[in-house]
Design a protein that fits this description.
Layout (H helix, E strand, L loop, with lengths): L15 E2 L9 E8 L7 E9 L5 E2 L9 E2 L18 E11 L11 H8 L3 E12 L1 H8 L3
Antiparallel strand pairs: 1-4, 2-3, 2-6, 3-5, 6-7
């Protein structure tokens, strides 16, 4: 993953392009998860009720209809990856839902999961890796 997505750099949501949304989709949801955290899957970002005709999401383009939830650290909004050690895999999950979720902004991941249950028509994943600052320094060391 580009370092700009990391909270130790620009902490910018990368541009995510969306296409081929299934028929019957009433809303979209996006989740960013750390798959390698010792705590289990950690949510770094969560947004739902994006219109089904959304084609691009990035740091400057988040449809106003979207509701942003709480990350695993109790914060609302995008928190870019910062692996504490080693290299971690981060997954963006796009969910096509057959309903708009009746869920207020600032909801937790477990509240989102309960609300979305039974409404997922399809999903797409995009996974990338990011290494800790120590790993990056080791990779740059020619020794």
């Amino acid at each position: 993953m580009p370092i700009e997505v990391s909270a130790r750099d620009a902490n910018e949501l990368p541009q995510l392009e969306i296409g081929e949304v299934p028929a019957g989709t009433r809303s979209l949801a996006l989740i960013l998860e750390d798959l390698d955290s010792p705590l289990g899957e950690v949510t770094h970002w969560l947004v739902w009720n994006l219109p089904p005709d959304t084609h691009c999401v990035d740091a400057l383009h988040l449809p106003c209809e979207g509701r942003v939830g709480m990350d695993a650290f109790g914060k609302v909004g995008y928190l870019g990856p910062v692996p504490p050690e080693g290299c971690h895999h981060y997954r963006f999950r796009l969910l096509a839902l057959d309903a708009e979720l009746d869920l207020e902004a600032r909801a937790t991941r477990s509240q989102f999961d309960a609300s979305a249950e039974g409404h997922v028509l399809d999903e797409a994943d995009l996974t990338g890796a990011l290494c800790s600052a120590d790993e990056d320094a080791d990779a740059d060391d020619p020794a």
